[in-house]
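Dear support,

We are seeing what looks like truncated structure output for some complexes. This example has two components. We would appreciate it if you could run it in full and send us the complete token output so we can diff it against ours.
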Amino acid sequence: MTEPANDRVDDGETLLRRIPDLARADFFPVDLATGEKRLSSGAFTPDDDGISVYRETLLSLAGLVVRAVVRHPLNAVASLPASVVRGMQLDVVPDPQPPTSADLDPRLGVAHALIVGFASLTRGQRRRRQRDLAAAAQVVVWPEQSIG
Amino acid sequence: MTITDFRPDYTSASVTAPGGPTPGWSFAEMLSDERPETVVRITAPEPMPAVRERNLRGAFADLMRIAARPPGWDGCGGQRLSTDALVSAAQLVVHLSRYDDLVPHLVPLPTGGVQLEWHVAGSSLEIEVDRRGRAHFLAITAGGDVTLDAEPIPGRFEFELQRAQRVLDDLAALLRSAR
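Here is the complete output from our reference environment:
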């Protein structure tokens, strides 16, 4: 495996987003016609810094699996390519974090990154980006009490 | 619908369902042991059809469950649902509850707001309520056409609400045709 750069996130990298579900499938609304579960755009709500994600390649290098991203048994994890994010006129930047007791593994923080580029958008533009991110993401870890 | 007895510095509000100016039958009170300072009382001028009442009770139970979450509920510093957002969302739920089979899905937001969502055959209406209680309406068809993208300004809320209701009319028609 090629060592990923620390100062940039390559387009070919996979990003992992923790979905902080705690009960009742909050972030998985159901299409009332098809019965299909969707990932809510609310799962990609940015805070002042952006949207927190983890770089799968750095997780692998640290010997961690995707499930290391969850902090609670009912959390889910969604993945999407960095190239898709950049195709939405957003960006992904490395944002390594020191170990925190909230993470199940102290090595997780090195893989932290941020999806950025929301500050200059109107509310409508920002929400459409969130919706596009949710549509592009694939759930790779379902809550332990699976709703599927 | 009107909100009575509410100012931003108040910690309680009454929301009256549409249909008449006289609040009468109180059918839901949003109370919580975890959040005793916030009370949203839903009243209607008269009893409503059982299905609608059940759906509204379910939606408000979801809203109250979200409101009861403490700060940091998402494990990443997520903010508690603000009282302004709670009241605005309660208003929207009551206003947009014409259809028995179109019950909103409520999504907690880490920024202290909440999102109401309806999805039918790939088309959707999503209303984001931010922590200050300000709503933004976004409707997108299955084909990707944006049919509503609006943040009501003061004096325009009823107008945008009517547009949202028309989107729900379309979603209800879609749902009927899918069955």
